[in-house]
């Protein structure tokens, strides 16, 4: 997303609010952008920072070509500071270092911006230090806090920020954005069903692991239909080595759930909702093999398995039990 106009296609309300503030020179001393992963928090933070420092701004739009815009893009502007978690959290010393940096006169002006990524991961001490910083705002300082979990930020900090909620992309908008970036319509349809993060979807499109994951899903379905006696061996020798991490196994189950949802759509005559369009012939074959009742029971079993993955359950045993329930 290279400008506010493009960002407005995915976050129209938030973008309009911010651009209005920029045009009226009413930029707040602190913002809190919150929304799910992939909703554009980082892009909006970068665009706002550029709009603040740009030497050639027109109607709120930064030029992207002046020295300030270029340095912000590269992460090298001396008066823009970004804090990210060190390990699992943002620590007090990071906030103290930020305060020290901001006690100095700006290298090129008195204007300063700091961006705190995953602000909900601040320790209690770090949050208290930041609160003190926010309580004494400078007219020339803008804080930008980013979070997926607004409830993880203490109320006293939230009350000192202008809170802007970012809405998740709906599937249709996601598909449009992905196709405009060069992803095929078939893949865009699939990716938008499993993530609302544009960057994650783009990685899936280039990821050999994901391509193989999709192939394994199709192979498992075919074996359940035609080679039931070999399914458990397939799970042990091919499925589990590929989906070796619990997060990967979650994604594998997500793909299976989408497959059986497609089977249900085929069974009830709602073919327009099918996600795996590239495998329509195989979806039709599955719909002849499993009944509505079968498919409903399998979907419930998969959702139960997803809940159990993060519990103290052996992943291979879980998948073996699931595939036994999937057999007709």
**Radius of gyration over all CA atoms, rounded:** 24 Å
Structural class: alpha/beta
End-to-end distance: 48 Å
Level-2 CATH architecture of the largest domain:
3-Layer(aba) Sandwich
Which strand order does the major sheet show?
Answer: 2-3-4-1-5
User: What count of helical segments does DSSP give?
Assistant: 16
Q: Could you name the CATH homologous superfamily of the largest domain?
A: P-loop containing nucleotide triphosphate hydrolases
Unreliable stretches, pLDDT < 50, 5 or more residues? none
SSE layout and pairing:
Elements: H1 4-8, H2 12-23, E1 30-34, H3 41-53, H4 67-74, E2 80-83, H5 92-103, E3 112-116, H6 124-135, E4 141-147, H7 155-158, E5 162-165, H8 171-180, H9 185-194, H10 198-206, H11 208-226, H12 231-242, H13 246-267, H14 280-289, H15 292-309, H16 315-326
Parallel strand pairs: 1-4, 1-5, 2-3, 3-4
Helix pairs in contact: 3-4, 5-6, 8-9, 9-10, 11-12, 12-16, 13-14, 13-15, 15-16
What key phrases describe this protein's structure?
single chain; 328 residues; alpha/beta; Rossmann fold; Zinc Finger, Delta Prime, domain 3; five-stranded parallel beta sheet
Structure, explained:
Helix content is 57%, strand content 8%. With 328 residues, it is of the alpha/beta class. It folds into two domains: 4-165, Rossmann fold (3-Layer(aba) Sandwich); 207-326, Zinc Finger, Delta Prime, domain 3 (Up-down Bundle). Helix 8 (171-180) crosses helix 9 (185-194) and helix 15 (292-309) runs antiparallel to helix 16. Strands 2-3-4-1-5 form a five-stranded parallel β-sheet, with helices on both faces. Strand 2, helix 5 and strand 3 form a beta-alpha-beta unit.
């Amino acid at each position: 997303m290279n400008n506010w106009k493009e960002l407005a296609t995915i976050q129209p309300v938030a973008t309009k609010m911010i651009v209005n503030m920029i045009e009226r020179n009413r930029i707040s001393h602190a913002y809190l952008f919150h929304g799910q992963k992939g909703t554009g928090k980082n892009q909006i933070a970068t665009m706002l920072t550029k709009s603040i420092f740009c030497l050639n701004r027109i109607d709120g739009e930064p030029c992207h070509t002046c020295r300030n815009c270029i340095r912000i893009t590269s992460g090298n502007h001396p008066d823009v500071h970004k804090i990210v978690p060190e390990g699992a959290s943002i620590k007090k010393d990071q906030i103290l270092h930020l305060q020290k940096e901001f006690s100095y006169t700006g290298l090129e002006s008195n204007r300063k911006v700091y961006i705190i990524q995953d602000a909900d991961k601040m320790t209690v001490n770090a949050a208290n230090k930041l609160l003190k910083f926010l309580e004494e705002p400078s007219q020339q300082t803008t804080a930008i806090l980013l979070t997926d979990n607004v409830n993880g930020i203490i109320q006293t900090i939230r009350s000192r920020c202008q809170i802007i909620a970012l809405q998740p992309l709906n599937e249709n908008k996601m598909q449009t954005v992905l196709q405009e970036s060069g992803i095929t319509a078939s893949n865009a349809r699939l990716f938008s069903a499993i993530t609302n993060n544009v960057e994650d979807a783009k990685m899936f499109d280039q990821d050999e692991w994901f391509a193989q994951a999709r192939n394994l899903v199709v192979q498992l379905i075919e074996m359940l239909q035609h080679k039931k006696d070999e399914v458990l061996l397939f799970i042990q020798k091919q499925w589990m080595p590929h989906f070796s991490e619990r997060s990967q196994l979650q994604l594998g189950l997500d793909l299976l759930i989408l497959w059986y949802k497609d089977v249900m759509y085929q069974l009830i005559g709602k073919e327009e909702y099918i996600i795996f369009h590239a495998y329509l012939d195989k979806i039709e074959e599955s719909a002849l093999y499993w009944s509505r009742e079968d498919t409903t029971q399998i979907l419930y079993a998969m959702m139960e398995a997803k809940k159990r993955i993060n519990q103290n359950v052996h992943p291979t045993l879980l998948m073996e039990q699931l595939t036994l329930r999937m057999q007709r």
